[in-house]
Amino acid sequence: MRVLAAAAAALALAGCSSGSGSSMWRDFSLNPLDWWGTPKASAKMAPLPPFTESVKTRVLWQAGAGGSGGYLFSPAVAGERVYAAAADGSVVALDAATGRQVWRVNAGSRLSAGVGASADLVVVGSEEGDAIAFDADGELRWRARVSSEVLAPPLVTGDLVVVRAADNRIFALDARDGRRRWVYQRSLPPLAVRSPVGVSAGGGLIFAGFSGGRMVALAPANGAVRWEGNVAVPRGTTELERVTDVVGQPWVGDREVCAVAFQGRLTCFDLANGTPAWTRELSSTSGVFGDARRIYASDDKGAVHALDRATGRSLWKQDKLAFRRLSAPLPLRREVAVADVQGYVHLLANDTGAFVGRVATDGSPIGTNPVPLGAGFLVQTRNGAVYAVAVD
Predict the structure, then answer these.
(1) DSSP 129-143
(2) Are residues 4 and 64 in the same domain?
(3) How far is residue 217 from each of residues 26, 162, 231, 252, measured CA to CA in Å?
(4) What are the distances in angstroms from CA 225 to CA 184, 209, 245?
(5) Residue 301: what pLDDT?
(6) Residue 382 lies in a domain
(7) Distance of alpha carbon 276 from alpha carbon 258, whole angstroms
(8) What does the buried/exposed string (b/e) look like for 175-206 if buried means 16 or more CB atoms within 10 Å of the residue's CB?
(9) H helix or E strand, kind and range, residue 34
(10) The whole model's pTM is what?
(11) Among 98, 161, 103, CA closest to 137
(12) Residues 6+ apart with CB under 8 A from 63
């Protein structure tokens, strides 16, 4: 595999260089840890905008999971536990209320993704292409090989663990023993995005986005395609211009599923049959979230957008965080939380996009999306600190 490294401008696509390898497939990274080796500001990065704080935040606790090693790790919440992982193989269980360490184990491999969790199963992915599962007490339950490096957290849903490999294969493993139940595969384009694009479940289906702006809905029982739709359509004349890959995880509502593509669009589909409900021009590197009234996304220039959930009409746009490599905005109660490459989490009013609060972490990049925790959220930094934040 030849890997294109992203440089600094507009995902710095113009300054790519290729490495060695025999495969015709190449990828470039949307990992903010690759764009910014350190969280230093660039000439284009917007300074922190001043505002009057109107929402109180409290750091409930902070715990150490371990460094990312250049990968992107996201914590998971299951019941009264928070689970986190690190590149050196560490997997840690924390009390969700206090951050107290319940157990810590080593997976025996360098990890590249985590964590997926349920009440009785904790799953991480390795750079060698293993899915590694532990029980709720930290005992190894099983280890299963997939086809290549795992970049996104595995999804634990029902009696399945769904693991996406970097080569576009999706593996459904039996949650009890890791036995392979089915595999879904798509061909790789000449150039693809290297990012932790995951899978989602809802409405009795499993959803996954792919290169070329495509999204599929799969049957959990056998991996059969129930429907397939275009999030975006590749445009341009060069390979680089035509990269239009779905990023992040699809967001699943009660009647629709929405996804967004890099150099593409944000599109919402009917959950049951894949009929497009609406689409908006928007290029993102981090994914999409929604609440009862709005769909939220951060674009690749650092603007945060709120769109009407029913029509896709623009409700507001917050553009004061330019080039800060934003996460997808996580809806809370009356706010949305969006993290950046300098380790800040910004709180915006969900009805206007105005700044209402800000939380500082350890100063290292937050490369994954905030995770809901009660009325607040969790984030994990590049340096391996996990923060639980309450929003009052």
Answers:
(1) SEEEEE-TTS-EEEE
(2) no
(3) 26, 13, 13, 11
(4) 9, 13, 19
(5) 95
(6) yes
(7) 10
(8) beebeebbebeeebbebbbbbbbbbbbbbebb
(9) helix 32-35
(10) 0.91
(11) 103
(12) 84, 92, 94, 99, 101, 385, 386
Backbone angles phi, psi at 212, to 5 degrees: 80, 5
Residues forming a β-bridge with 317: 305
Q: Where in the sequence is the domain holding 348, given as residue range(s)?
A: 37-71+285-392
Clarify whether residues 296 and 359 are in a common domain. Answer: yes
- In sequence order, the β-bridge partners of residue 146 are none
Give me the CATH number covering residue 320: 2.130.10.10
What's the structural domain count of the chain? 2
Mean pLDDT, consecutive 10-residue stretches, the chain (392 aa), reads 34 34 49 48 80 96 96 97 98 98 98 96 98 98 97 97 95 98 88 85 97 96 98 88 91 97 96 97 96 97 97 98 97 98 98 98 97 97 98 93
310 and 350 housed in the same domain: yes
**109: CB partners within 8 A, 6+ apart:** 89, 126, 127, 128, 130, 132
Token pair 């607040």: residue = 376
330 and 359 in a common domain: yes
Distances (CA, A) of 215 to 226, 246, 279: 11, 8, 14
DSSP state of 35: H
Q: Are residues 9 and 62 in the same domain?
A: no
Residue 89 in any domain: the answer is no
Instruction: Yes or no: say if 1 and 21 are a contact pair by the CB < 8 Å rule.
Output: yes
Ramachandran angles phi, psi of 346, nearest 5°: -100, 135
CA angle, 107 then 111 then 116, to 5°: 80
In the numeric block, which tokens belong to residue 240?
């680089």
**Per-residue pLDDT, 190:** 74
The three-point CA angle 57-63-64 to 5° equals 135
CA separation for the pair 276, 248 (Å, rounded): 19
Is 136 within the bounds of a domain? no
N-terminal to C-terminal alpha carbon distance within the chain: 48
User: Per-residue DSSP letters for 294-322?
Assistant: EEEEE-TTS-EEEEETTT--EEEEE-TTT
DSSP 45: S
